[in-house]
Amino acid sequence: MSSVVEKIQAIGLIPVIKISDVSKAVPLAKALCKGGIPAAEVTFRTEQAAEAIRLIKKEVPDMLLGAGTVLTPAQADAAIEAGASFIVSPGLNPDVVKHCIAKGVPMMPGCANPSDVELAMSLGLDVVKFFPAEQAGGVKMIKAMSAPYGNLKFMPTGGVNESNLNDYLSFKKIIACGGSWMVKADLIENGDFDQITALCRSAVNKMLGIELAHIGINTADEADASAVASKIASTLPIDEKVGNSSIFVGKIFEVMKGAGAGANGHIALAVNDIDRAVNYFSYMGIAFDEASAKKKDGKLVAIYFKEQLGGFAIHLVQKS
Question: Does 129 participate in catalysis according to the annotation?
């Protein structure tokens, strides 16, 4: 995969936007970034598309921008000249694909059946858009269709929303999902950018599935840990389970037998897919302590952020 496609995979969500009023382009881009999705596919369904890309590229340079509904080489040129880093189309036009490849710009054509997929692969592509996703059979169709094509990845778009998002993202051959539910036309037209930010945050939270797993409490030594754990257990009340380095009180508290991670302790956050979460947070500028990584059967199951928050070390854990 190209570096651009790797960025798409790290972000995980690509809002598909239609700009009819270029004055809305930059505020919309800022709303997406504020909501935790620094990316967008600007569709060439309006004459303002290229100018919208150009303005966003100038004012929000860190945003990952693509152009969608690109139907001709001329549209691809206009998008690339304006600053688009990737091109997406609803169908597979070999002329457009070859043109983008010659330009060195990642291209994801719409594919909905094995014939489309094989043509895309014959043109040298390893990532395609699956469109229209829900109408073409959804994630079940992608799983069935992808079986013979080991290295091919998909970005489904069309009918994807917050309720089915994780059905798609749970399949490892899906790099990201495109959708417009967080950037509805009426919200853009009315300039309701706060609501767009809120919908983006909700989508990111849905994708990551962050939940509190437990809170770690540091103590002076084993005796202190036992006293603290007993106090918690008798107060709440919940059961204690003594381990080698800590005492769990229910599933909520881990009382460390000494100074554990973090000045005050640690907070464990369970996520849907720890690899996707690490990629997302890394893209957003969060550094991880690689030495803290724990694996089971070769798969990552836990890892700490480098930075503490409020005196607490933060670590991600894979949901079981």
Answer: yes
